[in-house]
């Protein structure tokens, strides 16, 4: 059976949830391993046929551990079959849910020396009851400014699972 490495940079767990969905979609062909980029992993790329990196945006930025991983593993990322996706709440809006329309993916492409061949962007989720007070207030403020959900008692998932399924199929054929 082929092997796929699923790397993630996640804050609240939606990126991991998306990768677990992808893992199920690929289960007939790939044995998948999930690894947290925040743990600063040392990866032997020769053990995997393909790799996906999923990263979430928090307060307008991808985590610096993502960029550190890219810098450290740039030649392997360029040489291998490696896909990338970004998770953010802005992608809940039409036009912001594509790599071309996502300000975060475009910013990533400007900052990163690695330019993935296969990319996508998915809307994340709001988990208000799980947030610390400061995060809850800040996210409510941002959501109010952008026309999103502000009820702090709610958890709202914006992820379009059909888009994730389509990305999984593209990755499988990649």
Task: Give the SSE order as H and E letters.
Answer: EHEEEHHEHEEHEH
Indicate the low-confidence ranges by residue numbers. none
Helix count equals 6
Q: Main β-sheet: number of strands, strand sense, barrel status?
A: 6 strands, mixed
What is the straight-line distance between the termini?
17 Å
Radius of gyration, taken over Cα atoms and rounded to an integer in Å = 16 Å
Gross geometry: globular
Give the oligomeric state.
single chain
Mean pLDDT over all positions? 95
Helix content: 25-40%
In what range is the share of β-strand residues? Answer: 25-35%
Q: Which structural class do you get from the secondary structure elements?
A: alpha/beta
Q: Tally of extended strands?
A: 8
